[in-house]
Amino acid sequence: MSIVELSEANKIYRTGDQMVTALDKTSLALNLGELLLIIGPSGSGKTTLLSLLGCLINPTEGRLLVDGREVNTLSANAMAALRLNTIGFVFQQFNLLSPLTAEQNVAFPLKMQKLSSNEISRKTREALEKVKMTHRRKNLPRTLSGGEQQRIAIARALVTNPKIVLCDEPTASLDKDSLAIVMEELRLLAIDGKAVAVVTHDPRLQKYADRAVEVNNGKVIPLNKQSMDFGR
Ligand SMILES: Nc1ncnc2c1ncn2[C@@H]1O[C@H](COP(=O)(O)OP(=O)(O)OP(=O)(O)O)[C@@H](O)[C@H]1O
């Protein structure tokens, strides 16, 4: 079942009198229960596509439906609420808040949702258990390895039980072992029924994906499993 649907949607950035078509007209669905890889060269439009799927930007033309809601018609506040309740984000640089402990970072979105302290403790504990980081919950981010920080970032992304998890180069700063652990976590989220999309340059991620698309010069091209060779 699709949870995000782009139909004939494009993105044109205007700076001064310059226009850049970052994404050509695209129709793409992201389904619950799948891990979708988004690959392609630098500057091809991958982040723009992920930003559309994540309701961070509106399409210039065309439609974007997220969890049954037409995003173009939402106010900025309604878009922010949709992001907070429906979407979890994971970034290359983890983006953890450095003065906060691991568990305080995970609890942060729940505080924004204004849940009771009991609910916050319970959900935070469950999210930390899911990524097997309970034993490091009192640590500050700088005392954790890159892989551990990314697992905390994943716990923070899933603590609100979002239907959609979007990741921008989540393994780019990680070694081989941490990459495998992080991708296994993301794979489990898809098996759990969430829709997971991962932007990457990394050919090693292909084995974790159900489906892949390539973005090239603003065009989104579906890849079948056999052709997912990432140019090798
Ligand atoms: N806010 C913006 N204003 C103007 N142009 C932009 C903006 N954001 C992106 N672009 C342009 O849109 C095109 C696509 O950019 P995008 O960041 O989506 O590519 P990408 O595939 O994610 O690149 P990378 O892999 O290097 O992060 C590029 O030509 C970029 O310069």
TrEMBL record:
Claim: Translocase is one of the keywords in the record? no
* Sorted UniProt keywords: ATP-binding, Nucleotide-binding, Transport
Q: Which InterPro entries match?
A: AAA+_ATPase, ABC_transporter-like_ATP-bd, ABC_transporter-like_CS, ABC_transpr_LolD-like, MacB-like_ATP-bd, P-loop_NTPase
Q: Which residues form the ABC transporter domain?
A: 4-231
Which CDD domains does the entry mention?
ABC_MJ0796_LolCDE_FtsE
Write one Gene Ontology MF term: ATP binding
Among the Pfam families in the record, one is ABC_tran
The name this protein carries in UniProt is ABC transporter ATP-binding protein
Native species of this protein?
Answer: Rhodocytophaga aerolata
